[in-house]
Amino acid sequence: MDMKSLTIGRLAKQAGVNLETVRFYERRGLLPKPPRTPSGYRLFPEDAARRLRFIRRAQELGFSLTEIGELLSLRVSRRTTSADIRTRAEAKIADIEAKIRSLESIKKTLRKLTRVCDGCAPVAECPILESLDREDA
Amino acid sequence: MDMKSLTIGRLAKQAGVNLETVRFYERRGLLPKPPRTPSGYRLFPEDAARRLRFIRRAQELGFSLTEIGELLSLRVSRRTTSADIRTRAEAKIADIEAKIRSLESIKKTLRKLTRVCDGCAPVAECPILESLDREDA
DNA sequence: CTTGACCCCGTACTGTAGTCCGGGGTTTAG
DNA sequence: CTAAACCCCGGACTACAGTACGGGGTCAAG
After folding, report:
1. Cβ distance of A62 and B62 shorter than 8 Å
2. pLDDT at position B29, please?
3. Residue nearest to nucleotide C26 (CA to C1')
4. What is the Cα Rg of chain A in Å?
5. Which of A46, A50, A52, A78 to mutate to test the interface with B (most CBs of B within 10 A)?
6. Which residue has the higher pLDDT, A98 or B119?
7. Strand C contact with B2 (CB < 7 A)
8. What is the per-residue pLDDT across B75-121, written as a single tens digit (0 to 9) for each?
9. Which residues 17-76 in chain A show a CB within 8 A of chain B?
10. Interatomic CA distance for residues B22 and B30, integer angstroms
11. Which residues of B touch A107 (CB under 8 A)?
12. Which whole number is the average pLDDT over A75-86?
C-alpha cells in the first residue's frame, strides 16, 4: 500500500465523519471514485480528508450537497470555458455575500441585545425580529 | 375579525411559505400559539410574517429549527436573568462570527478563481480546497 | 492458521423538515 | 341558500442526509 493513501476507515477518522458517510459521498459524486487494491479496498488520496472537511463546513453554512457539488466542480479544465466558470463563480460569490449580510444583521441584533443586558433593561418582545427586515433577495 | 390579524392562509402567502409549514412551526413552538375565533380559526398577529421570514433566512444560514428556536427565545424577561441571556447571546455571536469567517474564506478562494479565469490559465486541481484549511473551530 | 480488526456490498432504517390527504365545519360572494 | 374558498385536525407520505445491518472477504499479529 502506498504511504500516501488512506483506507476508508482511516480517512473517515481523520476527517471526523462516519465511514458510511464517506461511501455515501462517493456514491453522490462528492468524492471522486478512488482507486482500489486488487482485493477491492478503496485507497483514497490524502487530500480526500480536506475535501470531506470542506463538505462538512459548507453544510454548516447552509449549502445542500447538490450546491456543494457545484462548488467543488468549479475549476477551469478542458471541458469548461473560463468564461463559464467565471460566471458561475461570481454567482456563488453573490450567494455568499448575501449570507454574510444576513449573518451580520443577526449579529448586530444580538450585539444590541447584550448591550441591553448590560443596562439591565428588561425586553418584552423578541428583539431578534428587528433584524432581517425587508431585504429579501 | 380584527383588521390587524391574519388567517393562516394569508399569513402563509405573505411570508411565502406553505400553509402546512405554519402549522408545523406552531407545533414545534417556533410560532406562539395564536388566539382563535369562536369557530376555531387562528388569528395571527401581523408580525408573525416577520418571524416566519426570519426562520427561513436563518435556515438558509445553516441553523436548525432547534437553534432557531434558541435564537428566537433570546430575550430578557422575568424568568431569565440578564446575565444568562448575555452569555447565550455571546455564544451565538461567536457561532455567527465563525460562519462569517468560513464564508469569507470560501469567497476569497472563489475570487482567486475568477482572477485565474481572467488570466486564462487552466487550473487542473480543485481550487476550492485551498480554502478552509485547518481552522476547525 | 486462526482471530480480531478492517473492508466489501446492497438494503433497510433513522431523524429532520416539511407536505399532502381527506373528511369535516365556516365564511363569503352571488 | 348554495357554491367556492377557506379553515380545522390527525395521520400518512416525501425528500434529504445520513446511519445501521448483516453476510461475506481480507489482512496482520500471535
Report:
1. yes
2. 97
3. B39
4. 21
5. A50
6. A98
7. no
8. 766 667 778 888 999 999 999 999 999 999 999 999 988 887 666 55
9. 47, 50-51, 53-54, 57-63, 71-76
10. 9
11. 93, 96-97, 100
12. 76
**pLDDT surpassing 90 at residue B22:** yes
Q: What is the pLDDT of residue A135?
A: 36
Which of A122-125's residues contact partners 24+ apart within 8 Å by CB, and which partners?
A122/B76, A122/B77, A122/B78, A123/B75, A123/B76, A123/B77, A124/B75, A124/B77, A125/B75
Instruction: Flag whether pLDDT at A57 surpasses 70.
Output: yes
3-state SS string for chain A:
CCCCEECHHHHHHHHCCCHHHHHHHHHHCCCCCCCECCCCCECEECCHHHHHHHHHHHHHCCCCHHHHHHHHCCCCECCECHHHHHHHHHHHHHHHHHHHHHHHHHHHHHHHHHHHHHHCCCCCCCHHHHCCCCCCC
